[in-house]
Amino acid sequence: MPKTFFITTAIDYTNSRPHIGHAYEKVLADVIARYHRLKGDNVFFLTGVDQHGQKVQQSAAKAGVPPAEFVKEITQKFVDLWKKLDVNYDEWAETTSERHKKVVQGILQRLFDAGQIYKDKQAGHYSVRQEQFLTDKERGPDGEFGPEWGQIEFREEENYYFKLSQHKEWLLRYLENRKDAVVPDFRQTELRNAVEKLSGDLCISRPKSRLDWGIELPFDKNFVNYVWFDALTNYISFAGYDSAIHEYERQSPEFRDRWPALQIIGKDILVPAHGIYWLIMLHAIGFPDEAMPQLLVHGWWNLGGSKMSKSAGNVVDPFVLIDKYGAGALRYYLMSDIATGQDADFSEQRVIERYDADLANSLGNLLNRTLNMVGRYQDSRIAFPEGVWLRNPDERATESYADTIITHRKAYESHMSAESTFSIPFPLPFTLGPFVVNAAIGNILVIADQGNALVENTAPWKLAKGSDKASKIKLNSVLYALTDTLRIIAILISPILPRAAHGIFDQLNWKMDLSGKEKRFSLADAQWGKLPDGHVVGKPVPLFPRIDPGEGV
Ligand code: MSP
């Protein structure tokens, strides 16, 4: 049996409502998960929320409610958003759940028993406002700590530490041996450079006297865990990992079938959290090198060139955009207007432009005119084409119509994979990057453009006027080609726009028994000529009404 494809995202802090950065990451994971289901893989998609920690405790205090209540309310906002955006996960991680707490405590106890965790005293300058010890790195050019740190005092505090630096050599060796541990490549380089500089251990606790919203240390009830052991462990605790079983090989078949995962994270939490703490944690609890996860690091959506942040008051609310333009328009924008791994600038104007140009004008128009013509000229029926359809029904074309579509379908598949080397305009393959969904969308648009060009170049309305057999055969060939093109487009676009893909199949009157179900779409069906002889299509209904009615087609 082939292994399950396991995909995870970062879990979002529940200190404030979701913004489009959160939405981007979850939609990206959902698209990759759906693409794997389209290929026939068994998929396990895990996402969720990070509910503990200081930020949450502070936000709850500010709102004047107990943290548990505060977290519940914000968690619901995330759940609501994923429902609206059709983010279809298999398991939901909430770090306050008992199941998770048990695994975190089990892992901490094991590492403590193995001498990997020890208690130590730290003394130094402490920022009361930021609740952290400061090092010389935090000093400004004048040698002083800036006003952002607020009141500074000298403090001594006991805490628990994890022997991180003991595993430095292992991590360097692992990264040397596995070139795609982190994608894109430049992020692996960034991580390796950071590991080379690694020194010191990781403080993993806070005394309860100053933070109690966390998981209690199993070996000292005066402390809670802070904070990465708790958050990172979600990736295995919600996938069936049993912390009481020490050997990786003896974990349950269910867990072993899922793990390792493809883990999608933003660029801010690669170093040190995922690239250093997480990989070392897994290694320290006995995961072999072959069972290390792959990290897919995405860029940031900025606003006016700078980072979105709640404190700067420049976050974009996905709920507002969905209410204005629909969930499909937002999914489409987030997947088409950024290259995976790079940053992009958010623009509401671009949400409208991309939707109107690509979906309303190109794809929607092709669907509408095709079904109109099949209805008008052939009583909604397409016959299996004779002869001409194997060539390009557009006599001026040099390549067969089907070949163009198949070439772009292959490019689409390459772009949806971990390392795309497929690039049509260039004779030599070169690496584009991992999971370049925007490039895959580009291939779908080329296919739609092919369809529209076929309409322009063969002018079916003229063919419909001819009473000779040759015109009739050609007209049917063109209409068959267009209808089958739409069927293939629906399959390819289904991971990105699942609802619209159903809309296209519904209008094509195709696989109606599976309407609304994801298994209606299969990549194996994205082959030329699968519509049967005599198929009757439905009536056209505008699927992508223009947002900006200004400049019609
Ligand atoms: N809770 C931690 C992650 C723990 S994972 C075990 C966290 N939470 S977060 O809410 O701050 O961020 C969650 C994810 O959203 C991260 O991967 C982060 O990079 C991503 N994004 C947050 N803002 C973003 C943008 N403006 N653009 C794209 N993604 C960004 O970190």
Tell me what the structure shows.
The protein is of the alpha/beta class and 553 residues long. 44% of the residues lie in helices and 14% in strands. It has 17 helices and 19 strands. The chain has helices at 20-38, 54-63, 67-84, 98-113, 168-177, 185-196, 228-237, 253-258, 270-284, 318-325, 327-336, 348-378, 401-415, 437-458, 460-463, 469-493, 498-508, and strands at residues 5-9, 12-13, 43-50, 91-94, 117-127, 132-133, 152-162, 182-183, 202-203, 205-207, 216-217, 220-225, 262-266, 294-298, 301-303, 306-307, 344-345, 381-382, 535-536. Strands 1, 2, 3, 4, 8, 13 and 14 form a seven-stranded parallel beta sheet that branches. The longest helix has 31 residues, at 348-378. The two termini are 50 Å apart. 44% of the residues are buried. The model has no long low-confidence stretch (mean pLDDT 94). The structure holds 5'-O-[(L-methionyl)-sulphamoyl]adenosine. 5'-O-[(L-methionyl)-sulphamoyl]adenosine binds at residues 10-13, 21-22, 24-25, 50, 231-232, 234, 265-266, 268-269, 300-301, 308.
